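Shipment paperwork, digital attachment
Item: protein structure file
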Amino acid sequence: MTEIARNPRWGDAQRTFITLTLVVEAYGAVELNAMPNDPEPHGRDLYARCLAGEFGEIAPFRFDAATVLRERAQRLHQAQTATAGLADAFVAGLLDDTEAARFKAWAAYQRDLARLDAQPGFPDQIVWPKPPAD
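Attachment content:
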């Protein structure tokens, strides 16, 4: 079976895997992730061959806006879950100092997440805000 690999690019910002297009005679073009610890020997082989430059230079990882916005939605959900039911108590002054500080920290995190798409370089170069330590 004849196969041609092309378009290698880092699959994540940490460079833990490579995504490439594999054109297989019997199946056509398919996207494949190759990893150094791939459970399939073929995946490990493709990863090593990509590193060796056999399929061209490995392009840098690029965020796409849809992926970033999905991740932001997940992080916002986490933050909203952490503060569920506390907004009214905060406004009414019913939280003790520790609870109020925790609520404010999560609120600031949510604000920073909401402003993520206003960062220069969005979506390619973003800095994720750090969630509060509990």
